[in-house]
Amino acid sequence: MGSHMTNQESIVLLMAGTAITTIGVLSLWAHFASALSRTRTLLWFGLFAAPYGLAVICRSIFLPGAHGRTEWLIIVFGKLVGLISSVPALLLFKEFYGKGGRLPTKWLIWMYGFAVAIVLVLILAHDRPRSIPSPGIALVILVPLSLMVDRFTGYRPPPIQNRLIIFGGLLGFFITFAYDHLSHWRDGNERAITEPFGFIALTLCLGYVVSCQVARNEAEWLSMAGEMQAARKIQAAILPVSMPTIAGYSIAACYSPMTAVAGDFYGFPSVHPNSFGIILGDVMGHGVPAALIASMVKVSVFASAERKERPGQIVCDLNGTLCREAPGQYATGVYVSLDRETGIGVYCAAGQPPTLLWRRQQRKLEALDAAGLLLGARNGESYEDSNFNFETGDRLLIYSDGLTEAENREAVSFGDARLPTLISSMENLTAEEFAALLREEVLTWSAKGSGMSQSDDITFVVIDAV
To answer: How many folded domains does the chain comprise?
Structure first.
C-alpha cells in the first residue's frame, strides 16, 4: 500500500480503520465500566482492535503521497503497531483456547516474541521496510501449527459456545490476509485493501462471542449478588435488633464484619427482669458459608436457653450440633449468664479468647480464661461452668479474636499494645461511649497495617454493672 493507492481506496480504508478503532475503544470502555472487570476478555479484545484500527487510519491518511523518510516512518509505525496488537490477540486466543496441550499457549507467545525480535532487528537494519515480512505471518504459521499438534495429541480446549462463529471470523481474516500478501508478492506493491475488512469480520465475530460471554458472566454476577443479599438478610436475622433493657446493667455491642457477611455473631438468648444470657461466637472462615453456620449455631443456642440450661450445657449442646450437622466446621464461643440479684456471673468458653473483667473498685483487669476445646472438634466433649463476681462499677468485655489480634504495620497486636490501657483509662465512659471509642481505635490500628481497614471480623459486647 503506497503511492499506487487511489483516493477511493484511502477513504474506504479510513472508514474501515475508524470502525475497528471505535469497536476497540468501546470494548475497553466496557471492560473498565463493567462490574466484572476482572474478566479480561474485553480488555484483550480492545487492546487488539484499537491499535490495529489506528494503524489503518494512519496509513489511509498519511501514506498516500508520502516519500522518503516520511514514508519510511509511516511503514515502520504500521509494523510496530502490528507487533503490539498481536500480543493482546494471543492473550485473547488463550482466553478461549486455554493453556494448550503439547504446544502450550505460553510457548506460542514466547515463539511469537522471538519472531518480534527478528522483525525489530530487520526494521532497524533494513533500508527497505516494505520488504520486511509482516509480524502477523508468524501467527499465521504458529497458530495453525499449534492447533494441529494439540488436535493430534488429544488436547481439548475448554467448551466454547459459538465456536463456529469464531472459526468463521478467523478464516475470513486469514483469507483476506493471505490474498493481500500474495498480491504483494506478485506485483511487488503492498496493497492491504481487503485485510482490514477481514479484520472487521473477525472483530464482529469475536465481538458477538465476547458479548455473549460477558452477558452470561453478568447474569452469574447478578445471581451471586442476589445470593449475597439473601445471606446479608440471614446475617441480620441472627443479630439483635436492639440491646436488652435490664435493671442494673448498661449494654453496648459492636459488629464490624470484614466482608459483607461474616461468621461472628452475638445475641441475648435468655433475658429476665434481673438476669440475662450473652452468647458470642466466631465461626472459622468468612463469607456466606460462615454466616450459614452461624445461623445454625444461633438456633441451637436459643433452643438450649429456652430450656433454661446452664452455660456449660448450652455450649455442650452447641458442640454436639456442630459435630452432627456440620462435620468439619469449627467455631469458638462463650456463653455468659449474669444475675443481678446474686451478683454472680457464670460463663463457659470453648476455644474463645478470655473475657476481660475490669474491676473498678480495685482498678484491676482480670482475664476469665477458663476455656474448653473449640466447638466442632470432638463430639461428646464436656464443658464446665466457671463463676465470677460482677459488682457495681465493674465492666465486662466479651469479644472475638478479631479485636485483640488486629495488627499495625509493625505487626504489634491491638490486644497487647492498646486494649488494657483503653479499658483502664476510659472507665468513666458509658458502655455505649466506650464501645464506639474501642471500635474506632481498633479500626485505626488495623489501618496502620496492610492498608486494609481490618483483617478479620471484629465483634464485642460491653456490659457495665451500674
So the answer is: 2
Tell me which of 5-9, 276-280, 352-356 is least confident: 5-9
Which residues fall within 8 angstroms of residue 255, CB to CB, at 6 or more apart?
239, 264, 266, 458, 459
Task: Look up the domain containing 390 and give its range.
Answer: 242-465
What is the C-alpha separation between 297 and 300, in angstroms, rounded? 5
Answer yes or no: are the C-beta atoms of 16 and 45 closer than 8 Å.
no
Question: Same domain for 282 and 184?
Answer: no
d(CA 218, CA 201): 25
Question: Residue 64 is inside which H or E element, if any?
Answer: none
Q: Report, as an integer, the average pLDDT of 239-258.
A: 88
Cell triple for residue 465? 454493672
Residues 93 and 197 in one domain: yes
For the stretch 359-398, pLDDT in tens is 999 999 999 988 899 999 999 899 999 999 999 999 999 9
Q: Is 234 inside a domain boundary?
A: no
Task: Kindly report the number of other CB atoms within 10 A of residue 71's CB atom.
Answer: 17
C-beta neighbour count of 148 within 10 angstroms: 11
CB distance 266 to 435 below 8 Å: no
The answer to whether residues 275 and 314 belong to one domain is: yes
The pLDDT tens digits of the residues spanning 117-170 come to 777 777 667 666 555 666 566 666 777 777 788 778 778 777 777 777 877 887
Q: Could you tell me if 131 and 64 lie in one domain?
A: yes
Which of 404, 421, 400, 413 lies closest to 448, judged by CA? 413
Q: Are residues 102 and 206 in the same domain?
A: yes
